[in-house]
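Quick look at the format.
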Amino acid sequence: HKVKCIWVLPGKRLSYQRHEKRAEHWFIVSGTALVTHNGNEIKMQSGEVINIAIGDLHRIENIGNDDVVFIEIQSGTYFGEDDIERIQDDFGR
């Protein structure tokens, strides 16, 4: 397993992506987020969780005025940052 604490600034979002070798479990600590999971948009707030299976498309966007903070717990066989297929990315990666 690998555990990360991630901050998303207001109006920003992470890339729309998927992973071949890991699943992720997200726990929203604070803020209001719009999570896109396999094309479905889900509004999430503090205390809510979502499970993202291996191969699922996903992204998180901060739709509030305060930082979104979430805990990402990764499980699988490999946790390298090169196990990311970016479908769309606001930062040109």
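Next, a different chain entirely:
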Amino acid sequence: MIFTVEKEHDGITIHDYLRHVHGFSRRLFRALKQTEAPFSVNGVVCRFNCRLSTGDVLEISFPVERRSPRIKSEHIPLDIVYEDNDVMVINKQAKMAVMPSLNDPEGTLTNALSGYYDEINLHSAIHIVTRLDKDTSGLVLVAKNRFAHMALSFQQKSALITRRYYAIVEGEPEEEAGVFCAPIGRKDGSIIERTVRPDGKYARTFYNLLYADKSHALVDVRLETGRTHQIRVHFAHAGFSLAGDTLYGGHTGKIHRHALHCYHLEFIHPVTQEKHNYDAPLPEDMRTVFGKKIIL
């Protein structure tokens, strides 16, 4: 990882530069101390207390991360929308789980990433920042090292990462734009299903109606919060279950998975601090719900 020191940070130590400018955590510093020569400035090995000058090139060498031996590497094609040394944006297909589980021990995005990392000789754990349900398609943000993961996780907790979704619902909302604000919690007797309940966690969902026919509507959805199954639960609670979402009252006549796609992703790059925006088109199985081409 490489940083170029800006004028306003002239004279600061490496430790303070990383701690206060780039937000390195104590845990990250502990990891760096395990490396024999974690820092070099303009090609010269330096210590934590070395002072930096404007224009200095600070290179950081992290210790090798170990992947869990329980993760099987699989060579599954990935739709990579963007990639550099620190982050990846992947357009995940529907029917692919993000993480291995008892029901999906193989064939997951994690397995695919492990196989891809083997191909490019990247020694890193799998750091998936934004997750999607198995049947939800669309953009997923991945960090390729510890620092990127730390920085992007902070952005996510601070609501600095923006995601927008296309959803197809059964019926047509009366309002062209609206908001659902209803607490969500686990449904009694189920470890999977969620429901609106008074003792649930605060949840807020915004939507805009894009297109409708006699039986279905396409909506653009933005989340203020990120509760499990939030979009699916809020629309079902309002009487507009997602098409194909049998868990929450939807039907499979038009599509054989819940019709939800993360089409837009925004974040601040953890190293360059530049804003990144990416989009993924509506997948074919969602387009065919309306029986004709939808122009978005």
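The first strand starts at residue 2 and ends at 4.

See the schema section for token definitions.
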